[in-house]
Amino acid sequence: VQLVESGGGLVQAGGSLKLSCAASGTIFSLNTMGWHRQAPGKQRELVALIKAGGGTKYADSVKGRFTISRDSAKNTVYLQMNSLKSEDTAVYYCVVAELDTVVYGTWDEYDYWGQGTQVTVSA
Length: 123
Known about the structure:
Elements: E1 2-6, E2 9-12, E3 17-24, E4 32-38, E5 45-51, E6 56-58, E7 66-71, E8 76-81, E9 90-97, E10 112-113, E11 117-122
Parallel strand pairs: 2-11
Antiparallel strand pairs: 1-3, 3-8, 4-5, 4-9, 5-6, 7-8, 9-10, 9-11
């Protein structure tokens, strides 16, 4: 399975961006899809995830500002980011787990990881 992210870029604080991640290849199942991010000098962290049944989980820092969604027919997950802040600046990675095995949303619970897309929010 290959994951291709798009939609990153430079935006002013208060602005919006929408990230997309399309999965391709030999796909049997995409139970959990999500996004992690890593800012310079910081640890990688969960941003949001969405299960096949629609259940979602968000980091406290993005609740109310970011929305994760998925189009299962297109094997694609989206992250709508509104009211962006400078602290949202990071490389955003798409992650996928084939089965319903993600419990905590940690990096190593997934099966596939994208290459990352840069999001830069200017003050």
